[in-house]
Amino acid sequence: MPHPKRRHSRGRRNRRRAHDSLRLPAMSICTECQRRIRPHVVCPHCGAYKGRKVLEVKDLA
Ligand SMILES: [Zn+2]
């Protein structure tokens, strides 16, 4: 079986992990209910998109 000849250096490991961190999704404000929403997505709180109500939001609780 192929096997690594030697351990990678700490610097090489750290360079690989430099891209591993998670980032928060982009957020904007809903023009109807003023809550934080993802852009280009219908507001999950009030069902509005581009200042117009396009969906009924069911209370799932
Ligand atoms: Zn909204």
What labels describe this entry?
binds zinc ion; 61 residues; 4 strands; single chain; 1 helix; alpha+beta
| Fraction in beta strands | 5-15%
Counting DSSP E segments of at least 2 residues, the number of strands comes to 4
Secondary-structure element order, N to C: HEEEE
Mean pLDDT: 90
Parts with pLDDT < 50 across at least 5 consecutive residues: none
Describe this structure in words.
It is a single chain. With 61 residues, the protein is an alpha+beta fold. It contains one helix and four strands; from the N terminus they run αββββ. The protein starts with 9 loop residues before the first helix and ends in an 8-residue tail after the last strand. Bound molecules: zinc ion. Zinc ion is lined by residues 30, 32-33, 35, 43, 45-46, 48.
